Amino acid sequence: MGYQVCFIQGDWLGPAVWDKFERHFKACGYVCSVLSLPAAGELGWYRVLHGADARSSPLGRLVDFYAEQIAAFPAPPVLIGHAMGGLVVQLLLDRGLGVAGIAIAPRPPQRVFPGILSLLQILTARSERRDGMRFLRMTPGQFSRRVAYPGARQVTGQLYEKFVGRVPQKLMTTVAFGFGSRLHLSHERGPLLLISGDDDHMVASSVVLANYFYQRRSLAPTDYISFPGYGHLLITQPGWEHVADRIIEWLQQQLGWF
Hints:
By secondary structure, the protein is of the alpha/beta class. It has one domain: Alpha/Beta hydrolase fold, catalytic domain (Rossmann fold, 3-Layer(aba) Sandwich), CATH 3.40.50.1820. The chain has helices at 19-27, 41-49, 58-71, 84-94, 116-124, 140-147, 153-163, 169-176, 205-215, 240-255, and strands spanning 4-8, 31-35, 78-82, 100-104, 126-130, 133-137, 167-168, 192-197, 222-227. Helix 4 (84-94) links the parallel strand 3 (78-82) and strand 4. It holds the Pfam family Abhydrolase_6.
């Protein structure tokens, strides 16, 4: 049996964004699952972040939620996350969870500046109050300029309807300022691969590169790949297969064939 691969939901986008990657990894012999919130939309966020330990940050509660699911697997899985899901992967690996981690266009941990593009997206998103929590939702124009770029307008509109949801304002604010994302840079963590698109208008490739240099303070294996011409949605834009295959190649180098 192959390694278990867990895809971790990030911010703004729903779990369906992993559909292509999940099919591809399954075809290559991996056992796959998408770790999403306990319910779709605002209710899922509410269940994870509301009423939990008030002493922890919203990001800490989210990482705890995923850590409980990962600990239930019979063997440590491969963790793959996008955007905030990529930050969650780094924090889970730092806790000693997961046999290896891949962070795609990841939001950075504390002590790595997130970049102006990412901060602007959070500060300019529309705020809405639902179920006792304040949520942010990007407009179609913001999605087209910052997340789906580069992409045709018609395709971008279809992606917006399929993937985009709301995300808690307090969570995004704490992530933007690094609250709850401090790493201990454990030498015992699993191998980590950081991936960026060099035309990313949400998490700039320079931010991911700075994150890579910060992660290299650990003696654990740490690698970085940048894909020319790719934007923030490396996992679903045309040419996503090349990204998936490079990840699989890296996993085989780190973990061996199964």
